[in-house]
Amino acid sequence: MDQTAAGGGARTDEATEKTPVRFDTKIAVLLRDDLEHWQRLNVTAFVVSGLGTAAPEVIGEPYADADGTAYLPMFRQPVLVFEGTKETLSLAHGRALSRSLETAVFTSDLFGTGNDRDNRAAVRAVRRDQLDLAGMAVYGPRNAVDKILKGARMHP
Protein backbone atom coordinates (compact mmCIF):
# COMPACT_ATOMS: atom_id res chain seq x y z
CA MET A 1 0.00 0.00 0.00
CA ASP A 2 1.17 3.49 -0.87
CA GLN A 3 0.84 6.39 1.55
CA THR A 4 -0.69 9.45 -0.09
CA ALA A 5 1.08 12.75 0.44
CA ALA A 6 -2.16 14.58 1.12
CA GLY A 7 -4.20 13.26 4.00
CA GLY A 8 -1.74 10.54 4.98
CA GLY A 9 -4.28 7.78 4.28
CA ALA A 10 -3.40 4.50 2.66
CA ARG A 11 -4.40 3.85 -0.95
CA THR A 12 -4.45 0.55 -2.70
CA ASP A 13 -2.96 0.07 -6.15
CA GLU A 14 -6.53 -0.47 -7.39
CA ALA A 15 -7.59 2.96 -6.13
CA THR A 16 -4.56 4.54 -7.77
CA GLU A 17 -5.42 2.88 -11.09
CA LYS A 18 -8.96 4.31 -10.93
CA THR A 19 -7.77 7.86 -10.25
CA PRO A 20 -8.17 9.93 -13.43
CA VAL A 21 -4.90 10.98 -15.02
CA ARG A 22 -4.61 14.74 -15.52
CA PHE A 23 -2.08 16.25 -17.88
CA ASP A 24 -0.52 19.67 -17.56
CA THR A 25 0.16 19.56 -21.30
CA LYS A 26 -2.12 19.53 -24.31
CA ILE A 27 -1.94 18.10 -27.81
CA ALA A 28 -4.14 20.06 -30.19
CA VAL A 29 -4.83 20.07 -33.90
CA LEU A 30 -6.27 23.16 -35.58
CA LEU A 31 -7.88 22.67 -38.98
CA ARG A 32 -9.08 25.28 -41.44
CA ASP A 33 -12.87 25.23 -41.43
CA ASP A 34 -13.28 25.10 -45.24
CA LEU A 35 -11.53 21.75 -45.78
CA GLU A 36 -13.29 18.73 -47.26
CA HIS A 37 -13.86 15.83 -44.83
CA TRP A 38 -11.13 13.68 -46.39
CA GLN A 39 -8.73 16.63 -46.18
CA ARG A 40 -9.46 17.10 -42.46
CA LEU A 41 -8.62 13.47 -41.76
CA ASN A 42 -5.50 13.57 -43.93
CA VAL A 43 -4.19 16.78 -42.37
CA THR A 44 -4.85 15.52 -38.83
CA ALA A 45 -2.99 12.28 -39.46
CA PHE A 46 -0.01 14.07 -40.98
CA VAL A 47 0.44 16.83 -38.42
CA VAL A 48 0.15 14.65 -35.33
CA SER A 49 2.72 12.22 -36.72
CA GLY A 50 5.48 14.74 -36.11
CA LEU A 51 4.79 15.39 -32.44
CA GLY A 52 6.10 12.07 -31.14
CA THR A 53 9.45 12.60 -32.84
CA ALA A 54 9.93 16.08 -31.38
CA ALA A 55 8.43 15.40 -27.96
CA PRO A 56 8.94 11.68 -27.16
CA GLU A 57 7.31 12.14 -23.74
CA VAL A 58 3.90 12.29 -25.49
CA ILE A 59 4.20 8.62 -26.46
CA GLY A 60 2.83 6.06 -24.03
CA GLU A 61 3.74 2.42 -23.51
CA PRO A 62 3.12 -0.29 -26.13
CA TYR A 63 -0.22 -2.09 -26.07
CA ALA A 64 -0.98 -5.81 -25.94
CA ASP A 65 -4.24 -7.70 -26.04
CA ALA A 66 -5.21 -10.61 -23.79
CA ASP A 67 -3.57 -13.04 -26.25
CA GLY A 68 -0.25 -11.22 -25.99
CA THR A 69 -0.42 -9.69 -29.47
CA ALA A 70 1.76 -6.59 -29.41
CA TYR A 71 0.57 -3.22 -30.76
CA LEU A 72 2.38 0.06 -31.26
CA PRO A 73 2.40 2.71 -28.54
CA MET A 74 0.23 5.77 -29.08
CA PHE A 75 -0.04 9.21 -27.55
CA ARG A 76 -0.39 9.01 -23.79
CA GLN A 77 -3.05 11.73 -23.75
CA PRO A 78 -6.04 12.79 -25.85
CA VAL A 79 -5.62 14.81 -29.02
CA LEU A 80 -8.10 17.67 -29.17
CA VAL A 81 -9.20 18.78 -32.63
CA PHE A 82 -10.30 22.36 -33.32
CA GLU A 83 -11.33 24.31 -36.38
CA GLY A 84 -11.13 27.94 -37.38
CA THR A 85 -10.93 30.32 -40.27
CA LYS A 86 -7.82 30.80 -42.35
CA GLU A 87 -7.13 33.94 -40.29
CA THR A 88 -7.55 32.07 -36.99
CA LEU A 89 -5.09 29.44 -38.18
CA SER A 90 -2.57 32.08 -39.22
CA LEU A 91 -2.81 33.83 -35.83
CA ALA A 92 -2.47 30.52 -33.97
CA HIS A 93 0.58 29.63 -36.05
CA GLY A 94 2.25 32.91 -35.14
CA ARG A 95 1.42 32.47 -31.45
CA ALA A 96 2.80 28.92 -31.40
CA LEU A 97 6.06 30.01 -32.99
CA SER A 98 6.42 33.02 -30.69
CA ARG A 99 6.12 30.66 -27.70
CA SER A 100 8.59 28.18 -29.20
CA LEU A 101 6.15 25.28 -28.85
CA GLU A 102 6.49 22.05 -30.80
CA THR A 103 4.49 22.71 -33.99
CA ALA A 104 3.75 20.77 -37.18
CA VAL A 105 2.16 22.38 -40.23
CA PHE A 106 0.30 21.20 -43.30
CA THR A 107 -0.08 23.67 -46.16
CA SER A 108 -2.62 23.55 -48.98
CA ASP A 109 0.24 22.85 -51.40
CA LEU A 110 0.74 19.43 -49.80
CA PHE A 111 -2.56 18.19 -51.21
CA GLY A 112 -0.88 18.24 -54.62
CA THR A 113 2.33 16.42 -53.74
CA GLY A 114 2.76 12.71 -53.38
CA ASN A 115 5.84 12.18 -51.26
CA ASP A 116 7.83 13.47 -48.31
CA ARG A 117 10.57 15.10 -50.40
CA ASP A 118 8.07 17.16 -52.40
CA ASN A 119 6.13 18.00 -49.22
CA ARG A 120 9.21 19.47 -47.56
CA ALA A 121 10.17 21.35 -50.75
CA ALA A 122 6.67 22.86 -50.99
CA VAL A 123 6.85 24.21 -47.44
CA ARG A 124 10.45 25.37 -47.86
CA ALA A 125 9.48 27.41 -50.98
CA VAL A 126 7.15 29.73 -49.03
CA ARG A 127 8.01 32.33 -46.39
CA ARG A 128 6.58 31.65 -42.90
CA ASP A 129 4.05 34.50 -42.99
CA GLN A 130 2.88 33.48 -46.48
CA LEU A 131 2.15 29.80 -45.78
CA ASP A 132 -1.34 28.78 -46.91
CA LEU A 133 -2.04 26.70 -43.80
CA ALA A 134 -4.63 23.94 -43.96
CA GLY A 135 -3.85 22.74 -40.45
CA MET A 136 -1.34 22.51 -37.66
CA ALA A 137 -0.62 20.51 -34.53
CA VAL A 138 0.85 21.95 -31.38
CA TYR A 139 2.06 20.46 -28.11
CA GLY A 140 2.93 22.28 -24.93
CA PRO A 141 1.72 23.48 -21.55
CA ARG A 142 -2.07 23.45 -21.37
CA ASN A 143 -2.48 27.18 -20.70
CA ALA A 144 -0.09 28.14 -23.51
CA VAL A 145 -1.90 25.92 -26.01
CA ASP A 146 -5.24 27.38 -24.89
CA LYS A 147 -3.91 30.89 -25.62
CA ILE A 148 -2.61 29.81 -29.00
CA LEU A 149 -6.03 28.45 -29.95
CA LYS A 150 -7.91 31.62 -29.02
CA GLY A 151 -10.71 32.12 -31.54
CA ALA A 152 -10.84 28.45 -32.57
CA ARG A 153 -13.73 26.14 -31.72
CA MET A 154 -13.88 22.40 -31.05
CA HIS A 155 -14.26 20.42 -34.26
CA PRO A 156 -17.86 19.17 -34.60
* Count of distinct strands: 9
The global form is globular
Rg result: 19 Å
Largest sheet: number of strands, sense, barrel closure: 5 strands, mixed
Secondary structure: helix percent: 25-40%
The pLDDT mean sits at 88
The low-confidence runs, each spanning 5 or more residues with pLDDT under 50, are 1-12
Strand order across the biggest sheet?
7-8-3-6-9
The SS-based structural class is alpha+beta
Give helix and strand order, one letter per element, not per position: EEHEHHEEEHEHEHE
Topology, element by element:
Layout (H helix, E strand, L loop, with lengths): L1 E2 L6 E2 L1 H6 L6 E8 L4 H13 L1 H4 L8 E2 L5 E2 L7 E6 L1 H13 L3 E6 L8 H9 L8 E9 H7 L4 E2 L2
Overview of the structural elements:
Helices cover 33% and strands 25% of the residues. It has six helices and nine strands; from the N terminus they run E-E-H-E-H-H-E-E-E-H-E-H-E-H-E. It has helices at 13-18, 37-49, 51-54, 86-98, 116-124, 142-148; strands at 2-3, 10-11, 25-32, 63-64, 70-71, 79-84, 102-107, 133-141, 153-154. Strand 1 (2-3) and strand 2 form a beta hairpin. Helix 4 packs antiparallel against helix 6. It is globular, with a radius of gyration of 19 Å. The model is unreliable at 1-12 (pLDDT under 50).
In short:
The chain is 33% helix and 25% strand.
Q: Any key phrases for this structure?
A:
single chain, two-stranded antiparallel sheet, 156 residues, five-stranded mixed beta sheet, alpha+beta
